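User: quick one, sequence for these tokens?
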């Protein structure tokens, strides 16, 4: 895991931690607990699994090594896209219409579940509607029309439209986009506040949450014994929900993912007028680059901007300096804006960019590798793992049946191969 500066609260110094609502302290595990299910990891995957399991009547313990939302979930861009990481043009080509439709429908359910959770638990997470995907090069100019037509005609989704350069410029003040896809039903949210909201709902539903409780090992037995340095949990089922922060806990799934670091900055408050001149509305934006730029306005009129990634164990020494060129390339008019926050986080990608779900033992479930499309997929992963533990694995098995590959070189040598591949794709971005 990255060595990074932490605030006294135990969170990294992010804009989201500075504006967190609903933070509760949970004790560290001490002694022995018994549970039906032990969930490892307190991000979207683990919390969604825990909440859905508790709602089904399971007795659940959740162990988080740091604080709730400490991982990617509490520091990500907050853009909740429609569909999967690969669009329906690609999934239809790879799997045919029926499977592609199923994956699309699951993603729609996932988005709706996020909306419902926010309302049901009154989660104050600045939920916004809409997402603009800016086309950064000529080759993709036909893509918004092709995708919006396909979604309307074959997926009963009439909410996307193709924008030309002028219409795009009226919404986002950059010369960097040649056109765009606008999806009025995608979402954006304050990721840490959503995570904390789900954690509080889970705790209210009876989940016993322990923070600062890093799992050091678990046994391949029924029940399993899950151990931390101070205590243990005996549980009939285990859910591994550690994603990019898995490290060495479970080598059998570590070799199917590659942890990568992604970075964000938050400008100073720009004032309502300047902010709305930049983005005309409150919605998420990203572009069509392989190393994607993503951004949106915060409630207090800052630009929250994500751009750039690295494939090493360390974050760059000066994250602000690292991300700034990406922002200024799109918005040179912000060259006088001060940067108040800069941070990084770790997510995981798979070889084929499809999520990786499965069972390692009859009583050990996992989901990971959302490849940058984690908010809706991770939330849905928790739901379908809970369903599977409850005895209905139909939806879980659709995801578990997606093809997966081992990174060449396994956990030891995947970095050099990945770096070469990523450098190749980021070069293509620029060409
Ligand atoms: C900077 C950044 C921006 C992103 N932007 C977006 C975006 O805009 N939209 C989108 O859809 N996705 C985005 N993502 C990806 C998304 O955030 C992730 O896919 C998602 O949050 C994964 O959720 P998770 O619960 O699986 O993992 P995480 O949120 O990473 O949670 C894993 C948790 O497990 C804990 N853990 C690990 N090991 C142990 C252990 N041994 N014992 C106990 N606990 C342990 C960690 O401390 C961590 O809290 C972004 C990611 C990053 C880093």
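Assistant:
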């Amino acid at each position: 895991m990255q060595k990074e500066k932490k605030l006294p609260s135990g969170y990294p110094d992010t804009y989201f931690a500075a504006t967190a609502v609903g933070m509760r302290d949970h004790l560290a595990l001490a002694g022995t607990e018994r549970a039906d299910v032990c969930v490892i990891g307190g991000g979207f995957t683990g919390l969604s699994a825990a909440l859905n399991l508790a709602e089904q009547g399971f007795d659940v313990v959740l162990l988080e090594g740091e604080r709730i939302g400490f991982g990617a979930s509490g520091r990500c861009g907050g853009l909740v896209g429609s569909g999967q990481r690969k669009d329906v043009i690609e999934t239809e080509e790879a799997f045919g219409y029926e499977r592609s439709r199923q994956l699309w429908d699951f993603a729609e359910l996932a988005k709706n579940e996020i909306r419902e959770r926010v309302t049901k638990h009154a989660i104050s997470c600045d939920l916004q509607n809409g997402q603009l995907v800016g086309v950064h090069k000529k080759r993709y100019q036909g893509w918004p029309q092709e995708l919006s037509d396909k979604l309307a005609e074959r997926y009963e989704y009439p909410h996307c439209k193709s924008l030309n350069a002028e219409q795009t410029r009226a919404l986002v003040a950059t010369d960097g986009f040649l056109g765009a896809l606008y999806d009025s039903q995608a979402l954006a949210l304050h990721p840490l506040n959503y995570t904390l909201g789900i954690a509080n709902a889970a705790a209210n539903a009876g989940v016993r949450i322990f923070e600062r409780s890093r799992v050091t090992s678990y046994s391949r037995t029924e029940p399993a014994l899950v151990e931390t340095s101070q205590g243990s949990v005996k549980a009939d089922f285990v859910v591994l929900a550690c994603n990019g922060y898995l490290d060495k806990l479970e080598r059998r799934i570590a070799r199917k993912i590659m942890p990568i670091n992604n970075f964000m900055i938050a400008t100073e408050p720009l004032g309502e007028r300047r902010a709305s001149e930049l983005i005309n509305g409150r919605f998420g934006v990203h572009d069509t680059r392989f190393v994607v730029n993503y951004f949106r306005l915060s409630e207090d009129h800052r630009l929250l901007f994500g751009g750039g990634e690295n494939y090493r164990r360390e974050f760059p020494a000066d994250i602000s300096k690292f991300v700034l060129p990406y922002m200024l390339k799109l918005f040179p008019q912000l060259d006088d804006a001060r940067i108040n926050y800069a941070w990084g986080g770790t997510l995981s990608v798979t070889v084929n960019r499809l999520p990786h779900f499965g069972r390692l033992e009859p009583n050990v479930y996992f989901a990971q590798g959302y490849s940058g499309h984690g908010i809706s997929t991770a939330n849905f992963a928790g739901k379908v793992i809970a369903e599977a533990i409850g005895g209905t694995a139909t939806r879980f098995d659709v995801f578990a049946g997606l093809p997966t590959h081992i990174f060449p070189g396994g956990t030891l040598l995947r970095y050099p191969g990945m770096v070469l591949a990523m450098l190749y794709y980021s070069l293509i971005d620029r060409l």
